[in-house]
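We treat protein structure as text, and this decision shapes the records that our systems exchange. We quote a single record here, exactly as it is kept in our systems:
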Amino acid sequence: MTIIFDGKDYAQKKKILIQSSANKVRELGIIPHLATILIGNDPASILYSNLKKKFIESLGCQVDIYELPETVKYEEIELLIKTLNDDETVHGIMIQMPLPSNILNLKTSILNLISKSKDVDGLQSDSVYLHPTSKAVMEVLAMAIYETRIDVVTVCVVGANGMVGKPLVKELKKLGYIVLEADENTEQTTLQGLTLQSDAIVSTTGKMNLITPEMVKNNSIVIDVGSPHGDISQDVANKASFFTPVPGGVGPVTITCLAENLILAANKVRP
């Protein structure tokens, strides 16, 4: 019988532990404070920014969302980030992704403006923090292995060069997994050959129904991180031993991992 992962329920249970950490920091007179910069009016980005704000503020932390128009100039973004970098009461700064297409080419430059100690979203190439979604996938994978008792040797990461995939591949290799890498442009027959070899599949591209039942071996672990749409056909759940839906799967866990990074930053502790 397939285990369908309930990310919302898991996040609420995990919240008890995070709340304890937040309370300890607040007892020192420090209120963990996140600044989110939201550029443009993408509905999914607005929704996700507000979900993060709601969860993190429920821990007694502070979240400010700075909404900027798509037409914002680089110099204006630079000035805002510099102001936030210099503000000692702000412990974390994140840029809500994706950026509007007109400034997408400035993504790396914008991210690198953030002070390394405040890069709680882990998007700088040498960040001291693991990207919250990658961190969430590692956490969910560990839980899936425990729940299913499957001996996972090989993991296929689809979207291996992306924002989530790249740090995830690095973490998986650190733990000794054999990692098969692909992306949304990998030829279908080649992709299927990789996924059928894998004990676990993680897909992060946002391309709907990229992974279908015939591409998944029986009783594998399947983790869908596609955004805003899931990558994996819902029918795959009938073959998998463990399946994460979109929405309600990895997403809520990602928010808890962002909160953990913020509290670490506020406590001046490096992961």
Observations:
- The first helix runs from residue 7 to 26.
- Strands lie at 3-4, 33-39, 62-68, 92-95, 154-158, 178-182, 200-203, 221-224, 242-244.
